[in-house]
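Can't paste images in this forum, so I'm doing it all in text. The chain is below; anyone willing to post the predicted structure tokens underneath?
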Amino acid sequence: MSKGPPTLRLDRLLANLGYGSRREVQRLAVMGLVTLDGVPLRDSDQRIPVTADLSARMTVDGEPLDPPPGMVLMMNKPLGVTCSHKEPPIVYSLLPDRWRDRDPVISTVGRLDKETSGLLLMTDDGALLHRIISPRSNVTKRYDVTLDRPLQGGEEKTFASGEMMLESEKTPLLPVALEVVSPTRAFVTLTEGRYHQVRRMFAAVGNHVTALHRDRVGGLDLPTDLASGEFRVMNEHDISQIFAAR
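Text version of the structure:
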């Protein structure tokens, strides 16, 4: 016997999505401002099956319901914002205000530092987050790197050796792939995510990173039509691409 989708009381569902307290949600329902398949839901105690298509079927005050729990976002992170909750300006300020009140909370999948732009994943699905960042998943990250000085020619071998040590580190880096685009530009693909790893790698070979942009996570590319600072909700195919080999 197949198990149906999980259900939540309407007031709990909308409160968890940041639409207000349960009492405020009750008022929305009584006023007929919450609909499912075009029918007003006036009983806030009613249990709602939380299905993948719920956002397409339910409206709140005339607008489609925000994605239910299990949401995964891709963002083209701009320069100058942090992935912290405490060091403004924060990347979460680029999301709708009420999303900061969601339960479970939205978290970034790993981090990009303030001066790094590009593909940033965000989710409220803790199991998926840990699956992506787990070393067992071997999810790669590719960075478009602009350098202050021309490459010398030995960087590719050094990065790929699996023997490169960074200052203050006790273990060598796992092999890193370097694809030269021009004397001062390259793509770097790595599986680890040590602190400022790409910048420190090039510093260790006597160069300086002037611009850093992540354009791929696993097999998922940053869409060319996703402008800096914009985000979109990912579908199942997008999520599967994270774990696809390239």
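The helical segments are 10-16, 22-30, 54-57, 126-133, 155-160, 197-204, 236-242. The chain has a mean pLDDT of 96.
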